Amino acid sequence: MNRKRRLWMAGIAAGGAGAALTAVVLIGSPQQDGDDRQETVAERGQSVMPFDLEQTTHRFTPTETGGVQDVVADQADDTKQIGLIRTHLQQEATAFGRGDFGDPAQIHGDSMPGLKGLQEGYERIEVRYRERPDGATLTYATDEPALVDALHDWFQAQLSDHGDHAESGH
Question: What pTM value is reported for the model?
Answer without folding.
Answer: 0.76
